[in-house]
Amino acid sequence: MIEVRSLSKSFGDRVAVSELSFRVEPGRVTGFLGPNGAGKSTTMRMVLGLDRPTSGEALVHGRRYAELAEPLRQVGALLDAQAVHGGRTARGHLRCVARANGIGDRRVEEVLAQVGLAEAAGRRIRGFSLGMRQRLGVAAALLGDPPVLLLDEPVNGLDPEGIRWIRTLLRSLAAEGRAVLVSSHLMGEMALTADHLVVIGRGRLLADLGTAEFLERHGRRRVRVRAVDPDKLTGLLRGAGLDAEPVGDGAWEVAGTGPEQLGALAAAQRVALLELAVCQDSLEEAFMRMTADSVDYRAAAA
Ligand SMILES: Nc1ncnc2c1ncn2[C@@H]1O[C@H](COP(=O)(O)OP(=O)(O)OP(=O)(O)O)[C@@H](O)[C@H]1O
């Protein structure tokens, strides 16, 4: 388990992380979300002992990273897939990391196969695509078979097949009882992958809750409705005083009601419907709404 307690980090007078507390529990994928510059990478670097907190602490299994015995067997990480020696082969790179941590060559072959790089294992990394480097980074993270995994933007550069592969892998690692923390900008992907979300903005915690609960709380839920006779529907909605918004093509989106009530109302007033469906905000829409005030770099409105 990862435990972040009142963690803060400043670079000069720039506050990157501020009084941040959350836990990454075993058995689930925790998505780590936040706009650019929110402090995600800095937090992950502090968990891995690569940056020193200004105050507070980040613990893995109750200890600071530097205090862990055989750290690679305790926590696996993918931070920057580009940060590898291009002149080495994939196998050579992994053997080097493995030997430095007392891990045998057999495990290297296992993780190469697990990430789909068995055939490319003898090739030099400098010829690898970004997606292959990501896979290699994941292989290195898995080398020690660790109960905790921490991945910064692992789907970066992956094609749709690769993205699906990462999703399946992360979910199966969590199902095996591991604690998985993963950051990503791809909201649609996070909605499919993460059971739990930790959202930060400007270094501060904005939300720490289940993905479904996040959508429920921060996403809007409306009922889309369309009728054979659009004028009759307009009259019905206006007459009922509902919070309705026209969305084109004679359709409306109505807030504060459910399809059951709206359907019953239409039936009672003999308005024949063509469409009656619940539309729920996507994770991206919910996320944009909740982080609107904490975006550091945003294009000025035209
Ligand atoms: N070594 C450093 N020196 C100075 N400032 C830094 C350093 N590392 C990070 N920062 C600043 O800290 C803040 C948080 O950056 P960080 O990279 O952790 O955010 P992030 O959420 O990972 O962003 P992104 O989604 O763009 O990767 C930013 O304002 C960044 O400019």
TrEMBL record:
The organism's place on the tree of life at top rank: Bacteria
InterPro entries tied to this protein: AAA+_ATPase (IPR003593), ABC_transporter-like_ATP-bd (IPR003439), ABC_transporter-like_CS (IPR017871), P-loop_NTPase (IPR027417)
Domain ABC transporter: 2-227
Database matches in SUPFAM superfamilies: P-loop containing nucleoside triphosphate hydrolases (SSF52540)
Pfam families (UniProt xref): ABC_tran
Keywords recorded for this protein, A-Z: ATP-binding, Nucleotide-binding, Transport
Molecular-function GO terms, alphabetical: ATP binding; ATP hydrolysis activity
Family stated for the protein in its record: Belongs to the ABC transporter superfamily.
Protein name as it appears in the record: ABC transporter ATP-binding protein
Native organism: Kitasatospora camelliae
